[in-house]
Design a protein that fits this description.
16% strand; alpha/beta; 7-stranded mixed beta sheet; Glycerol-3-phosphate (1)-acyltransferase
């Protein structure tokens, strides 16, 4: 019943805040994102109230004030909402098809994402590098899930190198993020489990040394070590 109650409120929040975002699309981006992602914050409060899932963060001091590329593991729907709110102003990489969803997809469009066609991998890489650099120059952070898809809790998939390539090409730092949200908000289960999601923000990784593959492996190793703690 708690999980059902959560989803009822969750859907209501998404619909209302998506509509608000579309109606206020004329506002400056940073103000619009602050308003739109307030719904993400409300979702986390509702998650705590209905399912007793809390959030604990460590390493906040590692987050630079300047634009950077956030590389996070991907276990759940939780991080797609929380990280966009927490790291704002932020642009995320997502499937272009998501933008076609009425209201929700339209509001995503106004968040200046980097929307790619998965059916054209080569073109998608070029698009990500070009528009990733542009978003960073605009002063945004970029949030990327280098595994490319959600994986079960306590596991870590292979990382794609596009996120590190954006950071390297733009001369900005990589900030690794590790979390265990899949233990509580599983991607393949309706029921939510009470507990505390641990999110760790790692030290910024200088991209002036090493190529994209080496930087990706360094990031993955840090996240892997945190997940095993």
């Amino acid at each position: 019943m708690r999980s059902l109650l959560f989803y009822i409120g969750f859907i209501a929040i998404v619909i209302v805040m998506s509509a608000v975002c579309c109606l206020l699309c004329f506002l400056p981006f940073r103000l619009l994102q602050r308003i739109a992602t307030y719904g993400n914050y409300l979702t986390m409060l509702w998650l705590r109230f209905t399912c007793n899932i809390r959030i604990q963060i460590s390493g906040q001091e590692n987050l630079p004030s300047s634009p950077c590329v956030i590389l996070s593991n991907h276990q759940s729907t939780w991080e797609t909402f929380y990280l966009q709110w927490y790291f704002q102003p932020a642009s995320v990489i997502l499937k272009r098809e998501l933008l076609w969803i009425p209201l929700f997809g339209w509001s995503l469009y106004f968040m200046r994402p980097i929307a790619i066609k998965r059916s054209n991998p080569a073109g998608a890489i070029r698009y990500v590098l070009k528009h990733g650099k542009q978003r960073l120059q605009e002063g945004n952070r970029i949030v990327i899930y280098p595994e490319g898809t959600r994986v079960p809790a306590a596991t870590l998939g292979e990382f794609k190198t596009s996120g590190a390539a954006i950071a390297k090409n733009s001369g900005v730092a990589i900030v690794p993020v590790a979390h265990n949200a899949g233990n509580y908000w599983s991607s393949n289960r309706f029921i939510k489990q009470p507990g505390t999601i641990q999110m760790h923000i790692g030290p910024a990784i200088d991209t002036s040394e090493g190529n994209a593959r080496e930087l990706t492996e360094k990031t993955r190793q840090w996240i892997s070590d945190k997940l095993q703690m």
